[in-house]
Amino acid sequence: MKKFRRIGxxxxxxxxxxxxxxxxxITRKALEQGVEVMGIIGGYSxxxxxxxxxxxxxxVSNIITHGGTILYSDRCKEFKTEEGMQKxxxxxxxxxxxxxxxxxxxxxFRGATDLTLHGIPAIGxxxxxxxxxxxxxxxxxxxxxxxxxxxxxxxxxxxxESHARCDVxxxxxRDCGQIALMAGIASGAVAICIPEVPFDEELAIEKIKSxxxxxxxxxxxxxxxxxxxxxxxxKTVPYGELLxxxxxxxxGVETKFARLAHVVRGGSPTLRDRLTATKMGVVAVELLxxxxxxxVVIEDNGEITDLDILFALxxxxxxxxxxKEGDLEKFSEADIxxxxxxxxxxxxxxxxxxxxxxxxCK
Length: 362
Ligand code: ADP
Hints:
- This protein has helices spanning 19-32, 44-48, 82-94, 106-117, 142-163, 178-186, 201-213, 239-251, 271-289, 309-319, 333-360; strands at 6-11, 36-40, 52-55, 99-104, 122-126, 166-171, 191-193, 219-224, 228-230, 236-238, 255-259, 295-300, 303-308.
- The protein contains 11 helices and 13 strands.
- By secondary structure, the protein is α/β, with parallel strands linked by helices.
- It has 2 domains: 6-141 and 269-322, Rossmann fold, CATH 3.40.50; 145-262 and 349-360, 3-Layer(aba) Sandwich (Rossmann fold).
- Helix 7 (201-213) packs across helix 8 (239-251).
- The strands form 3 sheets. The protein has a 7-stranded mixed sheet, sandwiched between helices. Strands 7-8-6-11 form a 4-stranded parallel sheet, with helices on both faces. A two-stranded antiparallel sheet has the order 9-10.
- Adenosine-5'-diphosphate is lined by residues 12-14, 43-44, 75-76, 79-80, 104-108, 110-111, 114, 128.
């Protein structure tokens, strides 16, 4: 067991419900092992600006129920520069921070890798509502976000039903359609549009027409924010807004557009997010105590485990068709095979759900 005197914990990038549960678990697990914990305020910028507070058992009391992050979050460009990194390392030395646990998404993990390369062991814990990190089945915040969408759409359905309307609801998820797909199915949407699968607009409009003819009054279409289109002026616009007018024009059903936006980011985390964040936080501290670094804590078939951060980031690039020249050179054939399998698994899962939604959503 490696003996750390003191570790730091930070949250970075987009916030997600459950981040506080992870902070709490990391703090308590470390303290229980005799390791002090410093909270770094405002993501990586807190390391650059020396914005650091001690975390005690009491300091993380009563935060498990709260959305957002008590350590606040930031997008810090300076941290990506060598000068910024040197300041961050100097802060770690000044405050005797021997290692860092960074909670966030892929950008946050890139930062964690850079810290490790500069001599500060770092572990990543997933915290993003989008579930867009290919190497893990689950990211903390996803379940809460889906349930928030569900609640909002249920409310819209009530009023759509009363007024015989259609509502096109745009939900967050960046380039990942998982929130839209799963919450769309669970909310009984008539059509779902996500970036991963080509959308058959004509079919969706036909479905709405025949549903209307069959007497259906309220209709919901869920569109992921990652889907864009080019309007008549050649401008790239969110597809949901275009779809709204096309549905109204072609079906005669009064159609509204609702962008849920950051509403989906907030709120008290669900049991799933609190529990997963707690498990992941505990594993992050265990990994550090085992002398490991540059690992990201993931969920794989229901089990909380860990992966090399570079491996995880490369799988992600492979899945998103963003591999750069030389990215795969650092990996063995077996690793690359494993990466392909992870990508295939995700593609297959989304395809199966999407096909199912086509049959069920009417
Ligand atoms: P997320 O972690 O949710 O993907 P971002 O992509 O905004 O969010 O990244 C969060 C922060 O992580 C950035 O503001 C920056 O401080 C740090 N970061 C992102 N990419 C890198 C990188 N390539 N090297 C070092 N730090 C990075």
